[in-house]
Amino acid sequence: VVAGDVTFGSFSLPRRRGERLACGSDEDAVTLAIDAAERALAGWRRDRGEIDAVHVVLGHGPEIIGTLAHAVREALGLRPGVRVVPFAADPVTAVSALQAACAFVGSGELRAVLVVASEAAAGADERSAGAAAVVVAPGGDGGAAVVVEEVARFSELTHERLRPSAEGEFLPDVRFLQHRYAAVVGSALASAPQPALGELDGVFFAGGWRQVQAGIRASHGLDQAFTDVVTEQSDFGVAGPIVALLDAATHRAGGDLGLVVFGDGQAVVLRVRTPGVGGDSFGWSEPRPSGRRPGAVRTQGPALPLPVESPFFARSWGETLRLVAAKCTTCGQVVFPPSQRTICSGCGGREWSEYALPRTGTILTFVDNHFLPAGFPESMVLALGELEDGVHYWAPMPPEIAGEDVAIGDRVALKLRRFTIRDGIPVYGMKYVPAPLENGGR
Ligand SMILES: [Zn+2]
Known about the structure:
Structural class: alpha+beta
Strand content: 25-35%
Helix content: 10-25%
Shape: globular
Bound molecules: zinc ion
Number of helices: 9
Strand order of the largest sheet: 1-7-6-4-5
Number of strands: 19
Largest sheet: 5 strands, mixed
């Protein structure tokens, strides 16, 4: 694993103990996945044309149906020939997606594979929203890679997702699960070659509940050294294993660690060797939820001008998902969206070349609109930004951002967010989000 980065939900919601990270009303597993993948590819610093496959693990929750893995490939602008492999999502699946990537790259069949795991945590459970992406490619850059090796695996029926009724909040019986997982993880650990685990610098967890982790630690004599690890504080669902991997890569330089991934009756024990100091192809931004998210408005989105299955939307993916603009080959004027600007207003020319708009800029002016058509939120900020190259670009801001939160001159980043859900299908586009200045603005 030669590069990787993370993204977390922008808001927090109260839970029985403390808080959990949550998506904003226009974020979901797809937007988190795309953001994490963009950051990981930026850290990789290679031509993304070398990516031969994308392994996608999306935990949508009940809100959105389908894998939408192709939206991830389209938004990243990967070659049409890149193979997209969606993995059915449970808490251990990301390990399989990573192992499959390692096998393809190790055998030389593929040059590089992007593995993306994203959890929207839209259900009533205690999971947190977050995403992580890694690039699997041959190393050779002085060992600046995370090496992952499966040590043991065990599974057993646990019934933890069995719901007695469709009504109300689902609260699993944690005491029962603590007992069951002590057995499942215990069996996995017992089948690990000895004394492999004793030689490690420590063991940490991804998945499940903290009480369950504590129970396993107590019954197997594992130390308490890693309780600061984010996946031991919050359960990131299907994204947990890759988030844990990047937590180790960025916070435990030169470590030789055990990672126990468990959930849905399965347990996998991995040995994770992290690069020494200077492995800057791995990024990490601490979760920074911006306060409690207002109650979600769950209404059908505004009517679209065309049905969602219209080829119009597929044809406009370059503009809507990747911000592909056009540049006049005669006078250099940049126009957006190119499909609606066929004659150059600068010189009357008709020859254009593709031009990728920058994703960061500053706010020039904005409108706090309180008079929106049916289906929109009560108010929405529409901002005119000046991008890094001087191009002016209009985009809305997320519904949770109010006019008084915005000022002229604010740094912003264009991020893919959900515009609406129409007939169960999400429609994505670019919005201005207060700039994430950590990670060098990745
Ligand atoms: Zn021109």
